[in-house]
Amino acid sequence: MKLGNNICIILFFFLMMPNNFAEDVITTSPLINLDEIKPSFEDVEEKSEKEVRKNLKEKKKENINLDVAHAVLIGLDKITAKSSKIIVNIDETKKFGPLEIKILKCEKAKVHNKITNVAYMQVKDLTKNENEKVFIFNGWTFSSDPSLTPFDHAIYDLQLLNCFNV
User: pLDDT tens per residue, the chain (166 residues)?
Assistant: First the structure.
């Protein structure tokens, strides 16, 4: 007998043989009630439009004191991609995450025939306990071009927006 005939016989035998190795039981999983599943994102509280407006007006009154000179910064958390408006009074410290921000001077200056906001800012990282007197940023920053004096931090980013009552 030739080799080709043997392969055909063996192949025919396996194709015609009933499938005794497979399990005939079909398993199912229980049904999931979709109404009981909570969303994985933050729970959204429904508030009336009047409550939202009232809360926003209260926050504005709390944050902005028109009698005191202050700087407005935008703080960005690079991990969560959330940005926050930070209002820092002159010669006072404000915390943003583990950062401690102090604005020593904030003024409007004329740069290349354009009026821009300029601030002298000191930033400490409170997570580094090695030397508390060392600033991770100590210098001038410009609202028109924040890349001139880059603030370099792995998680947070700060940018000057405006100076008020200077």
Answer: 555 567 767 766 666 665 555 566 667 767 777 777 766 655 555 556 666 666 666 665 555 555 678 999 999 888 898 999 999 999 999 999 888 999 999 999 887 888 889 999 999 888 876 666 678 888 888 888 877 767 778 888 898 999 987 5
Residue 34 to residue 37: CA distance in whole angstroms: 5
Cα–Cα distances in angstroms (integers) from residue 66 to residues 87, 88, 125, in the given order:
12, 12, 29
Rounded distance between C-alpha atoms, residue 160 and residue 156, angstroms: 14
Asked whether residue 151 is assigned to any structural domain, the reply reads yes
Residue 81 lies in a domain: yes
As given in the structure block, the two tokens for residue 139 are 């210098």
Residue 77: inside a domain:
yes
| CA-based nearest residue to 163, from 93, 106, 120, 104 | 106
State pTM to two decimals. Answer: 0.57
